[in-house]
Amino acid sequence: MKEHPSPAPVARFRKVDDPHWHWLENRDTPEVAQFLEAVNLASDQWFEPLESLTQTLFDSHLARRELSVTGLATPFDHFVYWSETAADADYPVFWRHPIGECFDHLDVERHGHECLIDLQELSTHSSFLELGDLALSEDEQWMAWTLDTQGNEYFDLYLRHLPNGETIRLERGIGPDLCWAEDNATILFTRYDTTQRPATVWRRHRDHDDAVCLFEESDVEFWVGLDKTRSREWLVIHTASKDTSETHLVPATAPETTPRCFHPRETGVEYGIDHRPGMFYVLHNRGAVHFCLERAEEHALEHWLPMIEHRASTTLEDVDAFSWGLVLTERDHDSAQVHLRLMQLDEHHEVTRDEWLPIAETPCSLALADTPHFRTRQLRLHEESFITPPRWIEFDIDSGERRLLRQQPIYGDLQPGQLACRRVWATSFDGERVPVSVVARADLIDRGPLPTLLYGYGAYGQTLDPWFSISRLELLTRGAAFAVAHVRGGGDRGEPWYLAGKLEHKENSFRDFLAARNVLVEHGLADERHIAAYGASAGGLLVAASVNLDPHAFCAAVLDVPFVDVLRTMENPDLPLTTAEYTEWGNPEEPEAHRRIKGYSPLNNLLPAPWPAVYLQGSWHDSRVPYWEPAKLYARLIELDSARGPVLLRTDMSAGHGGASGRFHAWHDVARQDAFILWALGLSHVMTTSQASSQDA
User: Fold this and answer.
1) What is the C-alpha separation between 571 and 630, in angstroms, rounded?
2) CA spacing 20 to 30 A to 120: which of 63, 114, 239, 508?
3) Candidates 1.10.287.90, 3.10.20.30, 3.40.50.2300, 3.40.50.1820; correct CATH number of 413-661?
4) Contact present, 512 and 484 (Cβ < 8 Å)
5) Considering the entire predicted model, what is its pTM?
6) So what family is this one in (predicted)?
């Protein structure tokens, strides 16, 4: 196998007067697409010896997975709703059936079944398809939805009278969010400004051609969003920057009403609300960095009364209101574990029951699943871990009974019971303890260092709670370990963990990632010669900056739509996201922020250093991390010619930030990526048990 692809595309397209390859930002110049297509060809040539492995990984992934999938049925007021994806389909079909009639969602020929939307059929008309939102009117007779058919996150709004009405396109190029008022006639949606910032909320009657602007956010650091309380009494307009928020309310039965501000924004104060008749519940961090819960009566919004005080050891993440009380999402800082807390309230809004829901294993993910009914006493919960596939539980709050509704089945030679998970703690450069999760085959995890893939993100307060992955089984069955670095900048240990990895503290994320890598070696879990790193989007920044700090730490790096041109991007307020990101990375117009960002931005710190093998992935229609960021990194690494292995780039010319939209296309992309990882870890020739048995036969 060639160690390096031909440098011909870079040499042929190089411009002497543009050593940083900024010309790649000129999307409309034909030469840009020509360059990317030439690089794709070079990448394909390098991957030719791995084509058999890629196909094997893809086929094995399909063999492990339930391909014909029927989604969990969810009852609303008049109908029960579910989705079905055929074994050979990329996209689901959404169905419903009247509540109270004989119902079998597996038999679509039965009387009463109605097809809401067939995404598989719609996908035949475009190379990309993403459903942004799907919303039903209060009487469930009208359906509105948004679709992106380019991958650039611009959506069109459609409307249909159910079950068989004509599909009407109402709007083009809007945001994804939708919300129906409780009058069965009014739809709220968002529009972008010139930088693709969701900046306005519009109201449109289903029978009228003209939309009315209901709310406009003029501050370029704020994005707007839409919601409706589970009580169905209020339409909620959210507007927020990265560290400040504000909420406006519209009565759901009177959508023509001027929005009412719940509480004026205060710089640095974030708050969110939910509602029970007569009372709002306010989750906020005013004077409470880990958030606290207060309540305000509808007629006295300015008077907040305490319910849950600020605690040093716990971050209060979310509140969901029901007729009987609240479900709170809390995160323990020490264990980095999420919990659900059930709080029943009486007619005076006083607490009559306060308890945490049980957790089946730790660490794990636990969340309130889709539970639309305000008065239900059966909660739907979603659970999964690194070794347990996703499952949906119905929890009866009166009896405490847990009923399994659905669990994702796993087929093949490596079953969840044959996996083991460990959590170790790394000591970072400043003495901070960083949790690191490791999953591997149970028969290997304690038998010596394993080739390891280390994953990280570490931005925006995003948590990396445990998740199960079927494609990951292809790495584990061949003897690799998978590890997650829960670095500062994420939300894994609560709000202080996020604050300690942003702005002037951003370098903590990179140091934590390297510390996570080192502790895996120290504990004998990872083979120091065979550790690959993976990061996507802001995680691509994490990995690339870490490699710049220590090029020898990893044998390979996979950078998926990586944010690597941080300084130049943040200097351009006309790009999507830029102004909204000032409170995450800093505004480079400020000298100190400029110095700081320049100090870690990967493209500003490239030297002729021994980078590991690199596989870069970009998307032509990506509006969050433009295709040119991975393309520039590729070109400059090729020119430096100092990497210890191949430098590869593949740009999907029909996708956006999330990659391919069809599941088979996406799974094939993952198979190619995993083939590269197995090659880098020295495992590309290792067979699974089933492969060996097949060969023996």
Assistant:
1) 18
2) 63
3) 3.40.50.1820
4) no
5) 0.95
6) Belongs to the peptidase S9A family.
